Amino acid sequence: MPRFSIVVPSHGVAGRLPLALDSVLAQGFGDFELIPVCDGPGAPAAGVAAGYAARDPRVRPVFSPPSAGLAEARNTGVRAATGAYLLFLDGDDTLAPGALRALADRLAVTGEVDVLYAEHERVPWWEGEPVNPVAASWSSAPDGVFTPRAAPEVAGVLLPAWSAAYRRAFLVERQLHFPGGHFTDVGFGGLVILHAERAAVLRAVVVRHLLRRQGDRLARPGAHHGELLDQVERVLGARPEQALPHGLFGQLFAAVLSTAARPARLLAADRRAFFRRAGALYRRHLPADLPRPHGRTGLPHRLLAADAYTAFRALTYAHRLAARALRLASRLPRHVAATGRTRGITRVARVARVAAGVGGRLRRIDPRLAVYCAHGGRGYVCGPAALHERAAELAPRLRSVFLVRADHAHAVPEGVEHAVLGTRHARRLLTRAKYLVGEGDFARDVVKRPGQVRLRTPHGTPLRTTGVDLAAYPVAAAAAGAGRGLKALLGGADRWDYVLSANPHSTRTWERAFPGAYEPLEYGSPRNDVFYRACAEDVDRIRRDLGVPEGKTAVLYAPARRDHPAPAGPGLDLAAFCAAAGEDMVVLLHAPGAHPRARSVGDPGGDRVIDVSAHPCVEEVCLAADALVTDYASLMCDYAHLDRPIVLYADDWEVCARTRGLYVDPRTVPPGPVARTPEELAAIFRDGVHRGARSAALRSAFRARFCRFDDGRAAERVVRRVLLGEDRGTIPPVRPLGERIPAPAAVPFARS
Q1: Distance CA 518, CA 193 (A)
Q2: Does the predicted TM-score (pTM) go above 0.85?
Q3: Under DSSP, is residue 427 helix (H, G, I), strand (E, B) or coil?
Q4: How confident is the model at residue 340 (pLDDT cuts 50, 70, 90)?
Q5: Contact status, residue 672 vs residue 504, Cβ threshold 8 Å
Q6: Given this model, what pLDDT does residue 596 score?
Q7: CB 647 within 8 A of CB 684
Q8: Distance in angstroms (rounded) separating the CA atoms of residues 388 and 435
Q9: What is the mean pLDDT of the chain?
């Protein structure tokens, strides 16, 4: 039997799960088992956990569906555990170094206890110092073993479940488990206090809790706050045969009153009912010998006991006004506050709020309006265009408008309603649309309104470092943030409701690099649907339009956009490559501002090198190409759907890894042969290596990893789920990779 079982629910945090698992496996105390709880065998976190389990037998993944919630995920882990003591760790938190050794040493001193409470740190996700919220209150905690009911101020009911170690036999004997619903820690913590006989405190940090950028999910507005009363009632009625500890009663209703005093958390229709139900619980379970509360802190208790909702509401409103006035006064220059000009400022603010309210009422959100935008308005392209086309078929009741820049308005297909970014008409559409679909923010000064739904359609699979992870690469961060800073760059994540994912790697990376409350949709990339819907006639038409000579092998050269200076050297001479690779070879150069060295050499105007950098649709360019040459561009993950040869070539791998960082080094999991010099690249094509069995095997493994969810129906799944609101069970499933048939290539070769 291991000394500790560490249960780690992983829903929604697959991208950061390795940090949690690594923090456990790096402990110097090795007598433990690690139980990641994953949504299911195909969930993003399951692949992460399986990799750890293959390397370390102490890792034993289990499964609990996300619909069962956090409580059942923890209970599932408890049922699978065999250790003497249980610890719970959120999937985006970490164990402090030496935590398990500190727990074991403390238990050696105290002997077997039902629960061992420990300190924790709340770590800001971005800036600021970690905070230990219990260190001060535990200064007077008993040094030895105590009964939790005698010291509820130490074993607080609001203490997170992951801030303690629980004797597993105690939980089993008392049949204690995490109650379902929200605020499960309140219910579980209260039940532990009522049943435990022996407890102790460890004055050392065990868990480092990562604060979410959007704050605690439980603090957000919604009907779920009514479940706090369910948990309170569960604790109050758990042991009617024993007197309820005064401290526990006070802590429970301190949490209740804190919620009632924040109207923004409760829906308007629920506020009075919440207060009255809380008052009924208060009066029913009020200990007879509890001293009557007095003073300002006791007034809310007295109002709750008297069911005086109107008076309580007036009191909380007065407190908010006073706090707002203090904040305003602290921000005003001293001479302004002294001259009484605050009255004028207050009137201006009031008029502004009224005007905003009137504007909001005049411009109600249109539930049938959807607005799309791609590449900052640079044409009718990419995922938003694919979704727009599919929505026209499946959701004709919606009015769909595409936003473009003025210099791209002429390229919008006939019959597609569009508006020019920056105009009053476009801004009106952005404020009124129910659905906003695009790769990022349409306009950073447009505030997302309650009720709007934003769907992010990422441009490709993230192979290079992005988002918050760019903090370690200041040069790349400056380029990505465009001078606005990473905080502003990541602020867009707060406005996303859904983010599309093409493969499990993308899901994990978005969750890690753009922490937010959005829901990942593992439906594939709508822009790649065309790879499974196009036919041979489409491929021939595109090649004619691009000027590819009949009978020639077209190699697409598409390097990634650089945010670092190119290394010294001659670069890749495309004309020389064509001459060395074979007479039937032509190159399609797609490098819009990405690789000036490749654009400056060779003869882009010649008949062997065709510059397609200005072509608006990269998917069409991919369909025309018989093979791809790239470096670390994410386009390789999209092109792999066509199951055509891919060759990697770059002369600045180390520079990119040092200045930008790579989540996946393509050289370690290549989709095909890797060339390190222009001569090697030409030889690969001249000798037919790119079409050989080894190349096909590499491509097959690569497709299994990065082509998981695209099957030609990604746009349909998104439209049905987001725009039509269909149930998950009616969404078309993803077809297995082996059953998909991509568009044919102009030049025959062996498929993988």
Answers
A1: 35
A2: no
A3: helix
A4: very low
A5: no
A6: 45
A7: yes
A8: 12
A9: 86
